[in-house]
Design goal:
Layout: H1 6-10, E1 16-18, E2 21-22, E3 25-26, E4 29-30, H2 31-51, H3 60-79, H4 88-104, H5 117-139, H6 157-169, H7 171-199, H8 206-242
Antiparallel strand pairs: 1-4, 2-3
């Protein structure tokens, strides 16, 4: 029996539903855009329904929503020293959006927006530019002191400054690639296991399909962890921007 291996790859194919351009700007409507909006609507709807009638003794939905918010708020305050409270809304939005995009791809037939480097790259560059702009706004030309660490002998500055600059510019690259690679690898594994399960003889189909179920459970955990890592690193970059170097 020939096995169609386009299944796992098909999950990552971007489909353009409506080709739209404004000059050089491409604003075409694709499955990436559609599923990002679906993730946003679902997250907003779940949170709204969970908190529509808050009770002193919370139910399951309210308890889950409060736990997620408290978790994000605590991590934000821990990683952005002194001013973490003002960044909680931003980090909560970022965390829930990424988590929603990660989880929606686990629905059979759905598309994972965060498996696209364009999406994770845009998020990473956005956080990077925000942190860089915040650093320049707070410290002016002191922005450049971060590339010359205190206590480093002047003779070593020609070596240290390029290293610090490369490390600084690599932040959005590593931030984007980490989320993209984890989502892509996990969903590819699920796709391969599902294809193997369908192609296998009926009497052993349960084996790869059983592994698929385990992999999906693991991917749900990874979806949460990757949203958490992206949020925490974003907090670290903002905290670094606030510190006077």
């Amino acid at each position: 029996m020939s096995m169609d291996m386009s299944g796992p790859i098909e999950h990552f194919r971007v489909i353009i539903y409506q080709d739209l351009h404004i000059g050089p700007l491409d604003i075409s409507i694709s499955n990436t855009v559609v599923y990002m909006w679906i993730a946003i609507v679902l997250v907003a709807l779940v949170l709204h329904l969970s908190m529509i009638r808050p009770k002193l003794v919370p139910g399951t939905g309210q308890l889950l929503a409060e736990m997620i918010y408290s978790f994000v708020a605590r991590q934000t305050r821990l990683n952005i020293h002194g001013e973490g409270g003002r960044y909680v809304p931003l980090m909560f939005t970022l965390f829930t959006f990424i988590l929603g995009c990660n989880l929606i791809g686990l629905v059979p037939g759905a598309f994972t927006p965060t498996s696209q480097l364009a999406v994770t790259g845009t998020l990473a560059v956005g956080i990077f530019l925000y942190a860089a702009g915040l650093r320049f706004y707070r410290h002016g030309l002191g922005f450049f002191r971060a590339f010359a660490p205190r206590g480093v002998p002047k003779i070593l500055l020609p070596l240290m400054i390029p290293i610090e600059l490369i490390s600084f510019l690599a932040r959005p690259v590593t931030l984007a690639l980490r989320l993209f690679a984890n989502m892509t690898a996990g969903h590819t594994a699920i796709g391969v296991l599902a294809v193997l399960g369908l192609a296998a003889p009926w009497f052993i189909q349960w084996l790869p399909l059983g592994f698929t179920i385990v992999q999906i459970a693991l991917e749900m955990i990874i979806a949460f962890i990757q949203a958490y890592i992206f949020m925490v690193l974003s907090c670290v970059y903002i905290d670094d921007a606030l510190v006077d170097h």
